[in-house]
Amino acid sequence: MILFTSVTKKTYSKSMISLIGIALFCTIFTFVYEKFSYGESSLYMRFMFLAPLVGALLYLLAQLGMTWMTNRLSTQLFNVTIATIVSGCLCKGIIEVSGRTTTLDQPYWIAAGVLFVLSLLVGLLLAPKPQATV
């Protein structure tokens, strides 16, 4: 018996729309946060919206069958990667806006890299094999 969880194009569309919404929220959040930060700004916070947009672009490519996201686990790992990058940008941005420096954001980048590599490996190694037609 072969068990397989299919990741359909409908799932990709919903994820793509969600990530575009998250990118829009990140943009609005950054605008409001910097409005009340007495003129201070952070590049990490300003470019925080790029991670969800790149994710949405990859989901668009996944709809066309051009990415490694072929199963549910690789897709979920990719979603966690995007969330980790956005969280790291937010953490670093808030600290920079407050006028301090820290290395507390480094685990975010390491975790995001590991999760992305795991997503790639799971997507490429556990990809469903094409069925032979008779």
Automatic annotation (TrEMBL):
Name of the protein described by the UniProt record: Uncharacterized protein
Transmembrane segments: 12-32, 44-65, 77-95, 107-127
Keywords annotated in UniProt: Membrane, Transmembrane, Transmembrane helix
